[in-house]
Amino acid sequence: MKKFIDYDESLTILSNIEFKVKNKEKSFLTNSLGKIVAEDIIANDNSPILPTSGMDGYAIRFEDQEKEFIEIIDKNPAGTVIESEVTKGTTIKTFTGSLMPKGSDTLIPIENVEVKDNKIYITQKVAKGFAVRAIGENYKQGEVLIKKGTLIGFAEIGVLASLNISQIYVYSAPIVSIASTGSEILDIGEEQTNNSQIRSSNHFTIEALAKKAGAKTIQMGTVKDDMDSITEMMTNALEHSDIVVTTGGVSKGDYDFVQDVVKDRLKAGVLFHGVKVKPGGPILIAKKENKLIVSLPGFAYSSTVCAIIYLLPMIYKFMGTKRELPIVKARIDRDFPLLMKKTIFTACNVKYIKGEYKIDFDGKKQGTSAILTNMLENPALLIQKEDSQDIKANDLVDIILLNELK
């Protein structure tokens, strides 16, 4: 078997993958949240198009603040265009969002005046142009407001609505097919006939991760350990999806057939098979034309960690977004030696306390790479690079915030 490569080398290989131009599709604004903008969004006008009031008050000429009083000559509700103009010694009561009346250049807030006999008496002066929104304050005509490749969030929805855009071009989400392999595994609802059988969770966990990342998914279920069944499943998955994910069958056991199908029957180009990571060392990633095959180990925790660090970035890349895994610095509560020359991902608890993230390992179980329950509650993954030093209590360390995955 080929020597396992370093984790950083595996990331470099994946970063150099080029996918063909992604398909575009039109999406209604109300359905576009979480999708990726496929074209620059450009302002078709200034906002605001004319000077506008930023609060309720009285539109005046700045220099008239020196007068004893200013006469009120009209009201200017939002959504109307009045004919009256502000001239020397006069003011127009103006409301938030109203166009500033002609002749005015400043707005006195209502709390800065006393009103008597249809006149205002200024109790506190303001600077010239106060509370006046200038032409183009929000954005100017021709300005690129949302760049191609942007993930659409709440702010993008609001800006698009302000531009009167009801439909936009977005990149089509990649289709991810997921299957768990193994003669010992059972799908939900299948009857257990002997004590050696286990209930598979991998294909559901990975489907949830892929959906959260914005992909469309095809659930292939469980597949028994034989070459023909795996070949049929993977051939079908490659025909209907952009990324095929399997769990199990990538080690060197007598019944680990996934690697043989990928390499020998599908003739896919193997990018790497085996990475010096824990958990998940035997991971295999291959490319066939414009399709990607991600074959993960079978243990639940192991396959989930590998899906996070390898599958999610590939979904982001396929979608044309610059999204990255949420890696932050955190303060560790204990010594944590590096036990082997691998990049190790360890489940921990994370809290945000007094301006920094802090991690501990309270309640986390020690054992094999099958303990998925270690990812419940407020989980994170501690990252120990293979060339790093032993971690000491109170050191700042790198973690992946699992509840912040997108």
Q: Key features?
A:
six-stranded mixed β-sheet; 17% helix; alpha/beta; 30% strand; elongated; Molybdenum Cofactor Biosythetic Enzyme, Chain A; 406 residues; Molybdopterin biosynthesis moeA protein, domain 3
Tell me the layout of helices and strands.
Layout: H1 7-15, E1 24-28, E2 41-42, E3 52-53, E4 57-60, E5 70-76, E6 90-94, E7 106-109, E8 113-116, E9 119-122, E10 132-133, E11 144-146, H2 154-162, E12 167-171, E13 175-181, E14 185-186, E15 198-199, H3 202-212, E16 216-223, H4 227-240, E17 243-247, H5 258-265, E18 269-273, E19 277-278, E20 284-288, E21 291-296, H6 300-319, E22 327-332, E23 343-353, E24 356-360, E25 379-384, E26 396-401
Parallel strand pairs: 5-6, 13-16, 13-17, 14-15, 17-21, 19-23, 22-24
Antiparallel strand pairs: 1-12, 2-11, 3-10, 4-6, 4-7, 5-9, 8-9, 18-20, 20-21, 22-26, 23-24, 23-25, 25-26
Instruction: Please report the total strand number as a whole number.
Output: 26
The parts where pLDDT drops under 50 for at least 5 residues are none
User: How helical, in percent, are the residues?
Assistant: 10-25%
**Helix tally?**
6
* Derived structural class: alpha/beta
* Straight-line distance between termini: 35 Å
CATH topology of the largest domain: Molybdenum Cofactor Biosythetic Enzyme, Chain A
User: Taking Cα atoms only, what radius of gyration do you get, to the nearest Å?
Assistant: 30 Å
Strand content: 25-35%
> Largest beta sheet, briefly?
6 strands, mixed
Corresponding CATH architecture of the largest domain: 3-Layer(aba) Sandwich
Number of domains: 4
The CATH class of the largest domain:
Alpha Beta
At the fourth level of CATH, the homologous superfamily of the largest domain is: MoaB/Mog-like domain
Largest beta sheet: what is the strand line-up? 7-4-6-5-9-8
Mean pLDDT: 90
